[in-house]
Amino acid sequence: MQSKKRIRAIGVAVALIVATLLAGCAQTPAATAKAAFKAGTYTASAKGMGGDVAVSVTFSATDIVSVKVDQHKETPGVSDAAIKNIPSKIVQGQTLNVDVVAGASVSSRAILAAVEECVKKAGGDVPALKAKKVAAVAKAADVTETADVVIIGAGGAGLAAAVTAHQAGSSVIVLEKMPKVGGNTIISGAAYNSADPARQALSPAEAGPEATIQTLISAKPASDLHAQMQAQLKKDYEAYKASGAKGLFDSPILHALQTYEGGDRVGDLALIKNYTSRTLDGVKWLESLGMKFNDTCFTVLGALWQRSHKPVKPLGTGYIDTYTTYISANKIPVMLETTAKKVIMKNGRAVGVEAVGPTGNKITINAKKGVIIATGGFAKNIEMRQKYNKHWKTLDASIMSTNHPGATGDGIVMGEAAGADLVGMEWIQLLPMGDPQTGSLSGNIEQGVEDRIFVNKQGNRFVDEGARRDTMTNALFQQEGSTMWVVLDKHSYPTGATKNNFNETIDELVAAGRAYKADTIEALAAQIKVPAANLAKAVADFNANVDAKTKDAFGRTLYSHKIDTAPYYAGARVPTVHHTMGGVKVNTDCQVIDKSGKIIAGLYAAGEVTGGLHGSNRLGGNALADTVVNGRIAGASAAAAK
Ligand code: ADP
């Protein structure tokens, strides 16, 4: 039950947000000289992220009266802010000079281009409307508010924390600097690793992974905890073999040891063990909130094991929709376009957050119980990349990123200013899967690890495609032009309407020239301009190993189908910065730790802003589970604080 006081606090906060937003919209119409149009409604469309965006624009003789987006195939959640804000800004400012919405720039540009077309049809003056500046927004009043728990960042970790703290009876306010929630989580591949007996019972046991388990068990232990976990894995695996079970073996301890070894033993084993012991509970919690996952597990790139859960909804929208449904139903205030600048400290305790609102106004949120930093990583902050990088030749602007524009490391800077220790900052993950034009994961045609190969410009394979992400990316940097082709067949795309992880159909990608399709391997080779004999040999050798199911010449052990069924597809990929493993130091309760090893009272952190979980290399599928597991822990810890 909510106390009256809390309801009032939330009510006030909601009113303030509404007031702030209204102030943000109160742009002085910049029209001095009136434009001239042929009155009427005109329609046009332009290419967005997922296909055509169709708009209709109504003009009077002097004004743009309304702009409506009639049809689009943009990803829900990712493009919402553009679809909502761009039309209203055009009408309010009577201008085509509207800033694109960060994180939804392709959708924004599509709407602007289609409206421009309508202006042309209505005989309007496009250059004048493009040059017309909107008057500066008046600064809204400063805001001071109070909640039990204040959360910085409305990505996966921040929203999981918000829901959990609220479920535990706390009042919550979330601050988000972008015009929309979701962060990197909403544009991620969204795979979630967890041992899951029910789903994995449906996955057949494979021969290759037996060697993986034996290697983990027999490695020289680094600590008593490590030795205990190895003994537990041995016991669990022997029990599994004795049981005659047919499904794939897995357990939280196997997941933990793969995470630890996969990160070169750099990670904190206590954090890892705590995390893998709670991932399945995280799946069940999400399902209790209405989220849906597929019935079987797959192996996402770099996951090393078939324990990745795939949400039914595209990208990370399933997680974010689940959280926002709860947040709306419970009226938890989320203040958009509000950038946290500082954690307010009093007598060594975090007691609030200072932020800047949408109009440059000062926002102060006092926290009665705690502040949670959930601001994500710094893959989009080139200065920070260059400052901390020790392992890649360069991470300057020549290397793109899969991340959204808000991934600028703010929480690491704020955490450090509040006294936090930082761990593992040098470990920055690249993927070999970037779009050659943008670095994004969009257009990536792979579906899972088992069914595709990578070839270089000579049509030759060059790496174990089931290896760690750093291994694959390092190998890609050695290839001509640091560019490769992902090659697969009908097993990955049973029909042209089958979608990739980015909600794009293979037919759309082929039509847009972002993927290639052919009836034979030779014809595919001709399209992508690699020597046909080499590509044919690469595929034939791969297929022989699928039959043999043994380690191949590159060390690959993960297989499912042969590449032998037309149509065949190929798509180009380059290295791209994906995840920053280092960050604020935390303990297993997500309390932030200072440079002398002490807990900073009232300060919590979760998600990519933290360091220590993934070590030197994050396994594919471990980030989303991190946001859920540790977001929940941070929310519960802060809510329980005195
Ligand atoms: P995680 O996966 O750890 O949850 P995400 O990238 O999904 O990380 O989410 C982090 C969120 O934090 C993003 O929505 C980002 O815009 C937001 N954020 C980053 N810096 C700030 C800041 N200074 N103030 C408010 N929000 C921020």
Comma- or semicolon-separated keywords:
single chain, 642 residues, alpha+beta, five-stranded antiparallel sheet, 21 strands, globular, disordered N terminus, binds adenosine-5'-diphosphate
Protein topology:
Layout: H1 4-25, E1 40-47, E2 52-59, E3 64-71, H2 80-93, H3 105-121, H4 126-131, E4 143-152, H5 156-167, E5 172-175, E6 192-193, H6 197-200, H7 209-218, H8 224-243, H9 252-262, H10 269-276, H11 279-288, E7 308-309, H12 317-329, E8 334-335, E9 339-346, E10 349-356, E11 362-373, H13 382-388, H14 410-417, E12 422-423, E13 428-434, E14 453-455, H15 469-477, E15 484-488, H16 506-511, E16 516-518, H17 521-528, H18 532-548, E17 568-580, E18 583-585, E19 591-593, E20 599-605, E21 610-611, H19 622-640
Parallel strand pairs: 4-5, 4-11, 5-8, 11-20, 18-21
Antiparallel strand pairs: 1-2, 2-3, 6-7, 9-10, 10-11, 12-18, 13-17, 14-15, 15-17, 16-17, 19-20
Helix pairs in contact: 2-3, 5-12, 5-19, 7-8, 9-10, 11-19, 17-18
This protein binds adenosine-5'-diphosphate.
| Strand segment tally | 21
Secondary structure category: alpha+beta
Mean pLDDT: 92
Question: Ligands bound here?
Answer: adenosine-5'-diphosphate
Q: What is the terminal separation in angstroms?
A: 19 Å
Please report which band the strand proportion falls in: under 5%, 5-15%, 15-25%, 25-35%, 35-45% or over 45%: 15-25%
The residue fraction in helices comes out at 25-40%
As residue ranges, the low-confidence spans are 1-32
